[in-house]
Queue: 4 jobs
Job 1
Amino acid sequence: MMPVADIIKEISQEEGNQVKYFEDLLEKIKKLNMMWKVLLFAFVVTTVQGRYENVNMKQDWWETAIFYQIYSRSFMDSDGDGVGDINGITSRLEYLKEIGVDVAWLSPIFKSPMHDFGYDVSDYYTIQPEYGTMEDFEHLLRKANDLNIRIVLDFVPNHTSNESEWFIKSSNKDEYYNDWYIWENGYLDEHGRRRPPNNWVSVFRKSAWTFMTNRDQYYLHQFGEAQPDLNFRNPVVVDEMKNIIKFWLEKGVAGMRLTSINHLFEADKDLYGGRYPDEPLTGKPGLGPEDYGYLEHIYTKDQEEVYDMVSQFRDVFDAISIRNNITRVMMTDANTNIKNAVRYYGEGIHSGAHIPFNLALVEDLDRDSDARDIKYAVDRWLTYKPLKKQANWLIGNHDKSRVASRFRPELVDAFNMLVLLLPGIAITYMGEEIGMINGFVPWSETKDPQACNTDDPVNFIQVSRDPVRTPYQWNNGKNGGFSTAEKTWLPVADGYEQLNVANQRSAVRSHYQVYRTLTNLRIRPAFKYGRYESLALNSDVFAFKRWYNDDTYVIVMNVGKTYHVVNLTAFDLVFGQLEVEASSVLSSRSYSDNVQANYLDLTADEALVLRMQI
Ligand code: GLC
Ligand code: MG
């Protein structure tokens, strides 16, 4: 039987959060004698009540969930071909459970010739054979379900692959598919040479128009040449997109992420005399007519029609959610300005996405950012976001340099604290929990179409996304435990012998350990339902407070390169002593150490999660 003192200690430390915990505790208390029973019961009730008022505030499963992005090609290879696959993911679901994530969001797994590694889909109803079969996927769903992990799929509605049957038929003027893409004649220049319809440039550089001899016309591709844009002004295309969403939601996925959603529509050419208008020049120095940044994308991005389309897609999600009595979440991804970004939450008669991606931390922060920039980026999103909607936070993805490389390795824990303890949804790109660094992929092995399109063996590195997509580092074995192949599709990053899950799991202090501590903390009411306030205590130290009733936490991160003493009483109602709940790997502090609110010394890069003692 558990000694009374231990029970009291546990109650005061764990106040945790989980009802289950208290149920267990009450079971234990029941076994004690009458006097202790009465005393302990009173203690539990008073301790718990103060902190758990309104705890039953209704929150749907996704509203404070942790999403973990798996770049499917690079997570785990089960069959030794050097390419990650579905059975590989299935075999590592326990790991996701272990680190405390709720949802696995998979980068594209549909059939694709892989010019843009799955973001060029040739068949939306089939699994890429290299990744497995539909049975493998169903098995993944079942196992995930058993572990209470949800699966979300990436879905690319803007364009298909040029190897899609739809596109092949359309290029042959098949009656049904004729208008599924954007076809244009172009025009003849003064020398009688055929020219593209206008000056539009693709995101991956070069003209957004490519000529097809069989159709004797140009097709539009806002991304790579192998990614023809679908025609969303054709209702048949829209219906087909809705069918795809239904198909996967009915199969049991918990949601879908609609990528590049703000590219769905181009200007209506009928409003411009039947010809797509040229885009104006940005005048940015150092850019040529083939560079995406050369033009102001006023006719190819963020067109008004997209918000109604999103609303129509949302109706599909809602219909299926109601039918299955569980919310299927719609996530949208749009690289745009903040005012457009928050429109994806819905407005007026248009319903929006559950989770419109917030790219603020990805786009607005870099190596030069200081505490004030962090505060500004976070608060800006919270300011523009509709008050009642949930925020979401991510600091990395498969398109952007890793945290350890974009900032520095010493700041990995600080940024995990930020993403995991801000209010709302947290999204972790695989590997950020162990602080993976960008791999080095030489020009000769470069695969990313955005890098290849530079035709520049030196400067490709500035835009290449391969370095953030190198294989996941499981252990110090061959290929970091990712694959038994002789050669993996991208090389494993240098340093995997030290930087890997196995090492960090057995270490006393590691990013992995910090991450686990954070996912555990997140379950507490202060982080689930609590309020938020932030301060740049100076240009190096960013801090934020989360509190729920009398349970108060301060997260403080020194992102500067020097030592600082800060005073946390700058926050309203923060005083006295605080106890360390989590600390960055290089911090000299550990769990349950005490610090003074009015005098806290922080070394460079030190980040702490502190809890007020009352
Ligand atoms: C999204 C993806 C990116 C891809 C692009 C084109 O932006 O994040 O990786 O290249 O769509 O499909
Ligand atoms: Mg494989």
Job 2
Amino acid sequence: MLEMKNMKLGPMLLLLLCLNIVSSSVGNAPTCPADLGGDCSDSGEWEGEFFPGIPKIKYEGPSSKNPLAFKWYNADEEILGKKMKDWMRFSVAFWHTFRGNGGDPFGAPTKTWPWEDGTNSLAMAKRRMRANFEFIDKLGVDRWCFHDRDIAPDGKTLEEANANLDEVVALAKELQGTKIKPLWGTAQLFMHPRYMHGGATSSEVGVYVYAAAQVKKAMEVTHYLGGENYVFWGGREGYQTLLNTDMGRELDHLARFLEAAVAYKKKIGFNGTLLIEPKPQEPTKHQYDWDAATTANFLRKYGLIGEFKLNIECNHATLSGHSCHHELETARLNGLLGNIDANTGDPQIGWDTDQFLTDIAEATNVMISVIRNGGLAPGGFNFDAKLRRESTDVEDLFIAHITGMDTLARGLRNAAKIIEDGSLAELVRKRYESFDTEIGALIEAGKADFDLLEKKAKEWGEPKVPSAKQELAEMIFQCAL
Ligand code: XLS
Ligand code: NI
Ligand code: NI
């Protein structure tokens, strides 16, 4: 196993990192506290590699025992007529991989990445951005996702925050080169205290105004970086109690906000897809974008259905009491499946644990939906997933992503097997074949009224109801894993 180099930072850094959570929006602290002896400078430069000893990750096949190799994900291999990398369109989530520090409500951060200096300065943001692109290059993916406030420090004014963002984005643009781009960007409208009642759904008009300005800027930088989508996740767009909430007015405000985003997208010539990411709760008790069906209804009610798609996150699906497969199918059947935040929850824990997906059966179901959807482009799979608090080696960042990518690759291979074999599709076809009849066709065409149906019921008498063959379906599915 690889050893972490540059591990000079001690408990003092832990404390600073901890404080950094609380003060992450405060801005320009000095970059390299002298007493820590960190390997850093004011310019954000870094000597040598961020991940020394970690090679470019290659495909070695299922028999490989190398933790730093793919066993199932073979980027250029064709499955069902499309390269694996084009089915997947994997993306690294900046906030988890480069801002996640292992802190939780009960404990201090546990991760002391060698390039971090315990501040949220502009110089630190730039150094982190360099680490991000080395990581992406070594992992062999072409995409990344970010919130405005993850990648650059906030400011005392909107102008200062925007200037900080511009500086980091300019560097990101340079580091992206021609191959890498954002799968999506988004605005962080949940961390700052001003957003405690929401952004677009805040009871305070000044907050609505500020949120709009922040989204406007985040859309501009996403467009500038060549982003393919733009995400709205409304962590605070909801309520804690209906007693003090005008839900109708808040939902109207949210729709007006999204309408303005659509207009602005057109104004600046951004051709990416706008995505809404449903989540039922956390941090709010009730979030308005509860699940795919609720969000589809909201979009339809406000005439926004053609302007948005959905970003389905598997852990959010289970929080809303659905499987990920259910949410993907609901989105797909409504023509709304745009992107997947690839993660999973824990069956024993009732919150968004954001784990890397390792369940091969779940991945197979996910990929069945993706194949039925004809892929996800211009969306993809964003690893909205983080290391466990107890995983503290730099190489764990790689191992986690490799496992996530391999799991979905295995899912794709299995799903292709199931589709090529055809017996599951045949089981489903047979289950509904009584509708492949004259009367069935009339029903499906909306031409069978109750008089006609009553006549048929009398003619046929008691129907014979066949088995659903669930266990056979499960047997066929298991055989492909
Ligand atoms: C939180 C969400 C968030 C979005 C982006 O639960 O998953 O990370 O993906 O704001
Ligand atoms: Ni997400
Ligand atoms: Ni989430």
Job 3
Amino acid sequence: MAKALNGFAIDLGGTKLAAARFEANKLVEKAQMPTKADAPFEDLCAAMAMLLDQLGFCQGNRLGVALTGRIDQSGHWSAVNGGTLPKIKDIDVRNAFTNMFGTNLTILNDATAAACGEAHFGAGQGVSAFGYITISTGVGGGIVLNGQPVTSPNGLAGHIGFMRSPLGNAECGCGRFGTVESVAGGRAMAHQAHVAGFENLNAKMIFEAYLANEKWATEIISRAAQAIAIQIADLTSIFGLERVAIGGSIGLADGFLELISLSLSKEPDLFQPDVRCAALGSNSPLFGALCI
Ligand code: ADP
Ligand code: BMX
């Protein structure tokens, strides 16, 4: 059973930091800034506190925090892909946030949060076996079975970006070779563009080049979508997924879902769940941070 959404939520991704205020299950105000990805923990805390302050947060108000990376059962936070947040390793985040923001607090992985948000308030409503995949700075995910997210003591459960892909051909910042994230994550796409001879491009620019029919960009974007489609079929074979929602700025970009669907249509019917865009758009992690 989802909690009513009243209070404040934070979503810290590898590229952007967002905060929101909720009243009676509605997002009423939102503030956002870029993530200083290579900054120390203290600077990230200061940025979160500043956004919350703008929204009228007072210590002790209900707060849900969704973070990119793994949060273990003792409340310690580590990047799994060390390239995304280089300074975040074994930080006692539960203790630090309790001191800063009060005890009325939930902390969870951003993609797990987004999966819960979608399951209870978005595209996963009415479905018992639901998956969410974000294609963003990295590739993250959450599986929600009968309304409950799949979690593990070390906080790694759901980190589907670190599954290997048959299309993988590069090292991943998590230490594995050929992961889905190394094919389809935003940072990985930027690296692929660099290898193709195009410097200093981010995934948004690569997507624009794809929309302008640039061959090199089409190869990067199509390969990413194909890797995600294969992954959806793989996850469906494990969890019997009925529906998968796609989020993240790359996942939600015009035409990406269609590319995934085209690749997925080549799989046998049994491995083709209903795939659609996240109904809450970029706000899925904010909803989910407060609802469990
Ligand atoms: P976060 O990872 O912080 O949650 P996003 O979901 O916005 O943030 O994902 C960031 C990635 O999405 C970056 O690689 C960025 O270049 C890319 N991106 C942002 N906007 C777009 C867009 N309109 N189309 C395609 N890619 C985008
Ligand atoms: C990575 C991993 C996940 C995260 C996912 C999406 C890190 C720092 N992050 O797979 O924990 O859920 O990216 O996160 O290891 P985002 O930064 O792309 O929003």
Job 4
Amino acid sequence: MKNRLFILFFLGLSCYTGYTQNEPKPVGPLPSQNQLRWQKMEYYAFVHFSVNTYTDMAWGFGNEDPKIFNPEKLDCRQWARICKEAGMKGIIITAKHHSGFCLWPSKYTEYSVKNSPWKNGKGDMVREMADACKEFGLKFGVYLSPWDRNHPDYGKPEYITYFRNQLTELLTNYGEVFEVWFDGANGGSGYYGGANETRKIDAKTYYDWPTTYQLVRKLQPNMVIWNDGGDRADLRWVGTESGYVGETNWSLLNATGDVPEQMLRHGVENGNAWVPGEVNTSIRPEWFYHEREDRKVKTLPQLLDIYYHSIGRNGTLLLNFPIMPNGLIHEKDEKAIQELTKTIKETFAQNLAKNAVASSEQVRGKNARYGANKVIDGDVDSYWATDDNATSGSITLDFRKPTTFNRFLVQEPIRLGQRVKSFSVDAFVDGKWVPIAKETTIGYKRILRFPTVEATKLRLNVLDAKGCPLISNIEVYKAPIVLTPPTILRDKEGLVQFVSGDKESVIYYTTDGSTPTSSSAKYTSPVKTDEGKADIKAITFNPFTNQASIASEEKFDISRKNWKILSTEDANANKLLDGNPSTSWHQKRNQPMPAELVIDLGKVERLEGFRYLPAQNWWEEGSIITHYQFDVSQDNTDWKTVSEGEFSNIKNSPFWQIKPFAAVSARYIRFRALKNTQEKTASGYAELDVITAN
Ligand code: FUL
């Protein structure tokens, strides 16, 4: 009787704690149920659409007339179909972007679809999006920008009430919402109901996020919160909008305190809160639609890199489709995502680990329940575990015949914490173990790419972990080879260079705009182009497999050979004309703003715009100019301003900034940096270029 009581007591205790006697203890912090559900989604979409879609701007100013908003062919079902066919699990819509314009008829403002010609002001795009998601079996999420460049009260406490009222509308009237996005951007200036001024707020205190979070939790208890500007939410930004998270990626951060970029990229190994990374990027360079980017849609190799650098690195992927003014996703974007989907499907079609025999010498208590075969049993909840005193261990997969593969997928059961600090993978080739990879973290999912290998066995070695290592899943694949096209660079003298990362391959190119093949000119040394514009295309070609990459293309404007920088004697300044994005020049410190750059083009040119690339070492002082003025002159004395304004989203997306203006003839140009991100004087430049008329 006594014994029985003891057993009953023990069973009761294990039920109470949720663990059976032998189950490994969790290594905290742990994900919440909402975070776990979200992580399993892996892949979902963003759609960016607002009044600034019609003004060709990255950010609306808040003064755009609602009358310009008229997506005549709007079809949210097209968006949902494209995302569903791509294997995505949800869509997040910019219900309100920084312009303040609302895609739903909010009762708290007139600045919304209700004052647009679209559906005679009777439309509700958030509703149409939510309905389309439901129809296509997708989850639905909302982006509600805290920064509102239209609202007169922005900066005052009244605005917070307005913001929460809007949030309540969105989280009450449209069914279940899986994620809400609170973007932290705040460039200061705005229309603000006609005040046309700069309003800075203290993002740490102004929004009072804890109270807003309480409201959110009450209205949508199953939702995750994304917030890069305020108090720690459920998910973190990964510090870049280019589509990758660090190779080392802990789903942990510290619950309080500042988060420098490095931490966003890698998480914090000993962080005290579970805040996993979401990789957000756009299928084109910018978030909103710009016709000039129709030929800049990301290519298959670029999208594959993004896939492996997000989902393959313990992140989720939030991929954006900019909506065109007519209300549809562009066919080029659809084609690009279809190509990615096809390649992903082909890659992960046949799991070669399934038929292998798995073994390990470090099975927890020699208990079959934690045996090595748990990593290939297709059950995500079962896992291999070692004894508590171990922080390392190996699993071997025996294919029992020569097997070729080039992808390795591995998962930890993160409900028990993220543990693995380092691991390696070996292949058994010709009777000996050959190292394939040595890596750091795993987390929810890690996918490694490596050159194709033929082996009879594969071995995962967990080298170090924060507790006894646990592995829930291993998959092995042979992916089709997709060659990456070369990068094309043209220097100041007009010499063109092609750069490829693939050592086995050769490069073929054309300079007349035609599509290169293996019969085109072969690249051996830099190619001279004349001083005019140049349309260069190139492919990577593998002579052993006869396989070619898609073509890369660069359309260069006039060469900068005869340009002379007049505003400084510093020879290093020529780096901004050298055609190499990774070299840069910073203006002298403590020089009064606006910092000025004056260039003699050598002769009169017909100019239609300019391009600026910020210094790519953007952590250095003043690297990124945010506000500018661009002037032209015939004689270096009389100047005319032809373009002036902001590089809206340059801080998060420090890429080429293109500013077209009405055509004008000039020999001199003057680029003035009015402000930079750090409000320091040493403004930085990687490249400066002009756009000339044909
Ligand atoms: C950024 C915003 O400023 C961009 O416009 C875009 O919405 C992106 C997703 O977040 O920080």
